[in-house]
Each structure stands twice: as structure tokens, then as C-alpha cells.
Write a structure and sequence with these properties.
The protein is α/β, with parallel strands linked by helices. It has one domain (4-309): TIM Barrel (Alpha-Beta Barrel), CATH 3.20.20.70. It contains eleven helices and eight strands. The protein has an eight-stranded mixed β-sheet with strand order 6-5-4-3-2-1-7-8. Helix 2 (53-64) packs parallel to helix 3 (85-94). The radius of gyration is 19 Å and the shape is globular.
Length: 321
């Protein structure tokens, strides 16, 4: 019932394989100043896993050796909490790569990080910021009391620095994910609603909204089990499989790197500790030169892959169709 590879075959799609990667997504650690209910990373303030400076330096060297990889995508936890974060940003920009940072917004108020907005702007970092709803009730229920108010203040600071304004090159996208066991609504319609509500109530501007499906992994999976909803949610994902999403799946063009330097097909496989599918291939960032060598390898799949292919699809870039 939950055999993803069998579902691909039923739709005449064959085994899922990688293309030549254009994005290097790096999880620099699981420490975060928040502990969100839906977090598939199981990140939080007490996590100690953190990418070492030598590993971060190898990431930059690998990026330099991989001319086809144009984007460094930094995630966590809260990636800004890693001491090597400024060096990763500056190093990637010096290599003329795009730098995308997945920001939880409230990290802007962490002691010692007052210069984050200036750092973002100086290096033209593209921000993808979590805001699971435009109402305080829903955000605080998922992410903790007072998070919505701090998120709004962070967005105002970013707008004041030029981020998210119409015509501004300083890109600011927001991320929506459901607060329960259901699929996101259509991305374009929800973006219009977000824009209307945030502009009217708070004077906030942003470029685009990305909708993400909650993955039945780690903390959200445990939440589903406690509520007795795990089977129903997996059934929902399976029943809404959309073959049109498969060509755009992020695992086909992205390489995921763990905080310890291990290689994965995607961030979700990383959290499930599922290495690259080809057992004879590289396992860490020290085992590969140009990341183009990973092209055409099969992707390690599982039942969680239905989360990326349900409905309009879901990826680190939002809906797929």
C-alpha cells in the first residue's frame, strides 16, 4: 500500500534517478532556538549536533570543485546558530554562488546575533522564512507562545532593510506548512491571502509563499502516532499521489549534506539516516570531488516520498505543479 517504487511503476515512471545536481543543501546542525511540533529534524535548544569548522571548510571546497552547483542552501536547526555560518555565507558568495538561508525569523533576536540582517544584506542572501500561518493563534500553537509576534517584528526589520519589498533584489519568501494532518491548499491562492492579511494587519511585504507538506518523520510522526492519525495521514498522502510532480522532485537536482558531512538524496532521507541508494558510491563529502558524479544514481525512496508527490507536490521550493 505504501510502496513508492511500485506506485512509480504503476504509472509507467520507472525507478527514480538523480539528474546532475545544481543545489547543495547543507544542514549545519540540529540546534535551534525553537522546538516546533511539526519539525522533521527534531531540532531544538537542547540539541548538540553541530557542523565543525573543518567540515564547513570542506563544504566550500566541494562547492568550488563543482561548477555545475550554483546554489548553497543552508538549513538546520537554525543555521545561523552555527559559528561557521558567516564563513559559509561569505565563502559561497566569493565563489559567485547563490546562498539561500532557511530562517525561522525569531533567530534574529538571539543574543549575540544582532548583526544577522546586515550579514544577509551584505551578501545578498536569499531568505526562506517559516511562517506557518498569518494568524497568531495558529503560529503559536505550532511553534510556541509569542512566536508569531516575534516573527512579525523580524519581518518588519527585514522589510526595513529592503528585504521582500516590491522590486527589491533582496529576496524574502515565506513558508506555509499545515498545522495538522492535512495537505496544503493551492499555493497561489494561499499566497494571495497571506499577502492581503500581512499587508493589512502588519504592513509586511514578501516576494512569494512556498507551501510545504508536513512529512511523517520524527516529531510530526510522533505527533501523528499519539493522536492515532498515522495510518490515516499516510493513506491521505498515498491516495493523493500525483505523477505530474515526479519530474520536479528536489532529490533529482539537490544533494543533501548532514552536519557530520554525510551525503543524502534529500533532507528527509537525511533525517531517516538513509544514505545514497548506490551502495558502491560516495558516502561523505570527503569521498567525492565534483558533485556532478552523483548524476544518474538511483534515489533512495520510501513511504515518506508520498509526502513530496501528494496533491500539488512539495519541495524545498514549494509546490511542484
Amino acid at each position: 500500500m505504501h510502496d513508492f517504487d511500485a506506485t512509480l511503476r504503476e504509472h509507467g515512471l520507472g525507478r527514480l534517478r538523480r539528474g546532475v545536481p545544481d543545489t547543495l543543501q547543507v544542514n549545519v546542525g540540529k540546534r535551534c532556538n525553537q522546538a516546533c511540533h511539526h519539525c522533521h529534524v527534531d531540532a531544538g535548544p537542547t540539541r548538540t549536533e553541530m557542523m565543525a569548522a573543518a567540515t564547513a571548510a570542506r563544504v566550500l571546497a566541494l562547492l568550488a570543485q563543482s561548477p555545475g552547483v550554483g546554489t548553497l542552501d543552508l538549513t538546520g536547526g537554525a543555521p545561523e546558530l552555527n559559528p561557521s555560518f558567516p564563513e559559509l555565507v561569505a565563502g559561497a558568495r566569493a565563489l559567485d554562488r547563490r546562498v539561500v538561508v532557511r530562517c525561522n525569523l525569531t533567530v534574529l533576536f538571539v543574543e549575540g546575533l544582532a548583526g544577522l540582517v546586515d550579514l544577509y544584506g551584505r551578501h545578498a542572501v536569499e531568505l526562506i522564512c517559516s511562517l506557518p500561518c498569518y494568524t497568531a493563534e495558529n503560529v503559536d500553537r505550532q511553534r510556541g507562545g509569542g512566536v508569531f509576534a516575534r516573527s512579525v517584528e523580524a519581518l518588519r526589520r527585514l522589510n526595513a532593510a529592503g528585504y521582500g519589498l516590491p522590486g527589491s533584489p533582496l529576496r524574502l519568501d515565506l513558508v506555509y506548512n499545515p498545522v495538522g494532518a492535512f495537505l496544503p491548499p493551492p499555493q497561489a491562492a494561499l499566497e494571495a491571502r497571506y499577502r492581503e492579511e500581512l499587508r493589512r494587519a502588519h504592513g509586511i511585504e514578501f516576494h512569494h509563499l512556498l507551501t510545504l507538506t508536513n512529512m511523517p518523520i520524527r516529531r510530526f510522526a510522533e505527533q501523528l502516532r499519539r493522536a492515532g492519525e498515522e495510518a490515516a495521514y499516510l493513506g491521505l498522502l498515498v491516495n493523493h499521489f500525483n505523477p505530474a510532480t515526479v519530474p520536479g522532485l528536489m532529490c533529482r537536482s539537490l544533494v543533501s549534506v548532514g552536519w557530520d558531512g554525510a551525503l543524502y538524496d534529500c533532507d528527509f532521507n537525511q533525517m531517516l539516516e538513509r544514505p545514497l541508494a548506490d551502495g558502491s558510491g560516495p558516502r561523505t563529502i570527503w569521498d567525492v570531488g565534483d558533485l556532478a558524479a552523483l548524476g544518474t544514481l538511483p534515489v533512495a525512496t520510501g513511504a515518506h516520498c508520498f509526502g513530496c508527490t501528494a496533491g500539488g507536490g512539495s519541495s524545498c521550493g514549494g509546490a511542484l505543479v
